[in-house]
């Protein structure tokens, strides 16, 4: 049945909204009745969306042996994928001679000789198992400036304060390294953010109202009252807080339904922002998602001379949703609301928009075009074991630069696999989105309504359609000084293009590889660079010169994917180092 679902604002007052039922009849219900409604939710559109069959789904592997709870793209085009080590044997065997882990189930100590982590090769579409000794369930991560993954925290005595690293290699020899030093506080459901000086800040975790840094300086950590204040008793709703590094060097931090600008160097809240005018919880377990929209160094700058800054946060669940799901088996509708705020304004205010359907546990990924892909998740319930129903199969494209809010959301081609709790998605260099995972169960379970999923898919956004092949730039060389894109310095890119269109021309963009888990892509960032000139070399060859990011607060040091975008069509990304 086609349906229209409007006004999912969840205000504390009684609000009208429409729920479709048989014969296209409608009931008008109060907020309290709405919270208890568990009616199945069909595909939904609103006046603020456009429906298309854009995009394509490709099943890469029916099973990779583990469920993709966490994913990180590495700088050699491999993807590290892992779930957890205490949920029983996986479907991926470790190589002969690899030590087995021990785990406890039903008061018995059992051996587990299977892998719970793997390294996926994008070029060959193959993967190899990795052994890890400690428990990294619901952990966090970030890439150091040299491309090494620093992976922090997890669960239980053998994981919750653990620090692990993984350095990329091309010869199949690299493995997880477990460091002897430990974190200063328990980091289960924490968030990491790379900083301008190359350090990583680790914020929060269950009952951990604090933050600390890696590399470590003694056993230093800092109490963070904001996390204590945003903790809902019995529900929390402030785990995996949203962190974004701002061009002025401060952090934007969002937890539960509050947000602040934070000076982490001096342990000081610079400003608490006005709350969204919608009573929705946005962080785990009422899991929404958040992105820092593209930073344009080629556009209108703020009064400070830095790029203008906007944050977009979408989805979540109303107050009490987790309790109802966990203790009453009632899965209330998620929120369809998004809040967008321009932090570079003198008095920032949230501007609310509506997605085409309610969503909880959805990933939000920046595409090379600057648009945002909203993918995975459910329409009812929250994160947690058995806490949600009604998978959302349709990705939604949020068109960042569309001036008309009525035209910003585009509903894309639906998936065929539910991606619920513990699913993830990441952008890869060729512009595809890698999608995997989903395990809303305490252990591996392949018989429940939403079984543990071990498959790996690729979603091809509409810009990868053959129709746009002639508009797609192909990068030949990147000419830099000392193989580095330096701050504020000019560099050039040579490329070929079959059909050049002067309007809108060529955009040069840098995109970070993110660590994605629990619907948040940590360290996700896109910087659109200032172009100096474009030279036409031959029939289809061109050279574009651009300036590196202005400073390390705009683009922290490290490896980025460089994309050329022409007429809404991105090139294959190439790796560059920024410092």
From TrEMBL:
Name of the protein described by the UniProt record: Galactose oxidase
Q: State the organism named in the record.
A: Pyrus ussuriensis x Pyrus communis
Q: Which branch of life, at top level? A: Eukaryota
InterPro entries, per this entry?
Gal_Oxase/kelch_b-propeller (IPR011043), Gal_Oxidase_central_sf (IPR037293), Glyoxal_oxidase_N (IPR009880), GO-like_E_set (IPR015202), Ig-like_fold (IPR013783), Ig_E-set (IPR014756)
Keyword Signal (UniProt)? yes
Q: What Pfam families does UniProt report for this protein, alphabetically?
A: Glyoxal_oxid_N, GO-like_E_set
Q: For this UniProt record, give its keywords in alphabetical order, as a comma-separated list.
A: Membrane, Signal, Transmembrane, Transmembrane helix
Domain Glyoxal oxidase N-terminal per the UniProt entry, residue ranges: 69-463
Tagged with keyword Membrane: yes
Looking at the UniProt entry, the stretches that span the membrane are: 7-29
Galactose oxidase-like Early set domain ranges (all copies): 472-578
Q: Which Gene3D superfamilies match?
A: Galactose oxidase/kelch, beta-propeller, Immunoglobulins
